[in-house]
Amino acid sequence: MPHTLVRAVRWNGSHATLVEWARVAALSFIPGGFAGAAVTVASGAGTDIKANLMVAVALVAGAVLGYISEMGAGMIAKKA
């Protein structure tokens, strides 16, 4: 039971942090933050170096693709 309680407190603390980080423009996509946190936990990151590396690569790729998508949307919006 105490182990589950520790996990719950840690999980809720990370969610509170994600919501606070949303005040920064570059980190303002809250659903993406929650999805990233869920994928990180589900992959077993923190327990296995290979899982940590895979999560890091996925996070960087997602950030780059999101930035490119935002730039493309901005260019389309300027034309309209």
Structure description:
This protein has three helices and no strands. The protein has 80 residues and is an all-alpha fold. The protein has one domain (2-79). α1 (2-21) packs antiparallel against α2 (30-42).
Describe the oligomeric state of these chains in a short phrase.
single chain
The class by helix and strand makeup works out as mainly alpha
Number of domains: 1
Number of strands: 0
Mean pLDDT: 76
Cα shape: flat
Largest sheet: none
Helix content: over 70%
- The sequence of SSEs as H and E is HHH
Using only C-alpha atoms, the radius of gyration works out to: 16 Å
The first-to-last residue Cα distance is 57 Å
Taken as a percent bin, the fraction of beta residues is under 5%
Q: Any low-confidence stretches, pLDDT <50, length ≥5?
A: none
How many separate helices? Answer: 3
Q: Summed up, what is this model?
A:
The chain is mainly α and 80 residues long. 80% of the residues lie in helices and 0% in strands. The chain has helices spanning 2-21, 30-42, 49-79.
